Structures are given as C-alpha cells and as structure tokens.
Amino acid sequence: MNYEALLINKNLKKTFPRLKVLEILDRADGFLSADDIHSSFKDEAHSLPLSTIYRVLDSFLKEDIVHELNLDHRNIKLYEIAHKHHAHHLICVECDKVIHLKECPVHSFEEDLKETYGFKMNHHSLDFYGVCDQCQKAL
Questions:
Q1: What's the distance, CA 74 to chain centroid?
Q2: Which residues, 6+ apart, have CB-to-CB distance to 88 below 8 Å?
Q3: Which residues belong to CATH 3.30.1490.190 in the chain?
C-alpha cells in the first residue's frame, strides 16, 4: 500500500504519525485498538502521545481510510484499514477475537424487506457476539 498516495488522495498532510499509524494498521493481521497502536510505536523506539493516535484515527474515520468496530461488551473501539466491501463479524466475548464473515448474510433479507414494506436500504450493520471455538475448549 502506498501510504503517501493514499493521504494525498484524501487531502491529508503526510505527517509522521499518519504514515506510521497506516503502516501499523496495514501490517496487522486484524483489528487493533488505539492502545495496541500506541504500544507498536513504543516497540519501534518511537514515542507518540495516545491523544495524537486518537486524532489520527478520527481523521482516518472521517475520510473512510479505516473502519471502526465497537466491542460493546468491553467498551473498546478497534480499527482496521478500510476495505471496499462492508463486512460483518463474529466477536468472541472472552478473548475479543474478531472473525470476518466472507459473505453478507443479510442481502436476501434486504430484498424481502424492500418487497414487503417498500423500504429502500441505505446500509446495514450486523455483528454476532459469542464464544469462539478456542475459548469454548478452555471453559
């Protein structure tokens, strides 16, 4: 991913914090919290205030560079690089593991709602909370 071109395309300045947050999120295997990103800076011998990381993430959210996932059961927000398609997730309430669903299970239901009620959908969101297979084995 060309981070500089992405920022230029979104009319954002190419600052060190923005470039590093993009790099950290891009390298991640999944979602990261602001604290996870902050820890990554420390691991790389750089220091950046947590407040700056939140400001960078807020600017990225406004420009649809990142997606945010709220873990309501823990009051935590997680972030990942935005992808072109919307996604639904399975979220483990024990270990906070997040699994992306490859397909949207709601599209046919949307069509049924449109036919039945004449309701045109703009968007939807759907996340499933439960216990992953690994945590079930540990219980």
A1: 16
A2: 100, 101, 104, 105, 106, 125, 126, 127, 128
A3: 86-139
For residue 117, pLDDT over 90 is answered with: yes
Class of domain 86-139: alpha beta
In this prediction, residue 55 has a pLDDT band, given cuts at 50, 70 and 90, of very high
Give the count of beta carbons closer than 10 Å to the beta carbon of residue 83: 9
- Topology (CATH level 3) of domain 1-84: Arc Repressor Mutant, subunit A (1.10.10)
Which residues make up the CATH 1.10.10.10 domain(s) of the chain?
Answer: 1-84
The pTM assigned to this predicted structure is 0.82
Look at residue 32 and tell me whether its pLDDT is greater than 90: yes
Band the pLDDT of 43: cuts 50, 70, 90.
low
Report the side by side order of strands in the sheet with 98-100. Answer: 98-100, 89-92, 127-130
The SS3 of residue 6 is helix
**CB 69, CB 100: distance < 8 Å:** no
